Model the fold of this input.
Amino acid sequence: MRTVVLFSLILPAVLVGCSDTQLRVTYEEPVLSEQPDALGPTEWTDEFQQRTVAESDILFVVDDSCSMEEEQEELADNFDGFISNFVATNLDYHIGVTRAALNSDGGPLSPPNPEVDWGVLETFGGPSPWIDADTSGIVDVFNDIANVGTNGGDCEMALQASFSALNERLQPGQPNEGFYREDAILTLVILSDENDHGIDGGPFACGGIGPSEYIPWLQGLKGWGNDDMISFTAITGGDDGCNANGNDADPAPNYMEVVDAVGGNFLSICDNDWSTFLTELGLEAAGLKRAFQLRRIPVESSLVVTVDGSDPGPEAWSYDRTRNSIDFPIEHVPAELAVVRVSYILQEDVGATAPE
Done:
């Protein structure tokens, strides 16, 4: 069996202002040489290094309808686990909160309508309507702005709220100007106990965006090939709804359609413990990759994955055939600068045999 090994290339540090953050290339194109067919199947190895990033934008979209008081408190109570991943780092982060229960008469914000609050970030008296590393009492501030109340509008549509927050409301002179940055990774977290009603019909139609429009917009937001710069999380009732631990929620197929399309995260809003999930989500928001795209097509049964030289176990990773990637669930995301090594037999060599 012939062996080809592709080593990752780590570039020197790239200085951003006075930051000592190192931006690393996870892999480079392999240099291929001709191999005689008679040598048999090729064992190929891809090697990646978990990244670090300089900037992260996080947007929480919180349902403020009449049934959401306890869920808002649950989010706020567990935020310290989320933000703990950013403390004592050089990460430049923006954390904003906007409401999901909107008014059905909102419509497009062109020209801007001062009576419509679609996508406007909650304020807390700081110099900008988002939390950053200079915000004093970060956890207390988030607790205040995440408890958005229960007097929202008649249309729970977090897809539209996040779309508006990152479009019309970013324009010069609009309330969110400066929140979103092109080079930052983006984390969207939806919290709602209902389905998204943006494309509901009938006399009370909300007039918002639906999954069929939202998904391609989100996938294209950072440009081709930069899917791993966007994370989408739904804390909802999921596909079937739920009723447990004093909470209940309707099925949320529109949110789950987005989760499935973009490889997002899901937590049942009825779960009795959010702390671990939000802590792990904070790791992802801090820039750690969950998916590592392979350079060649593997024989799936031959895949061997190690993290820093150790076997993480079969529950720690999976192979995504559509994206040709090794995916780690949120609870097993490799740590910063960890080396992920993936070895496999090339699918193109199936049927080849080595000479006797």
The two ends are 12 Å apart (CA to CA). Helices lie at 69-77, 79-83, 138-146, 158-165, 211-219, 253-262, 275-285. Residues 275-285 form the longest helix (11 residues).
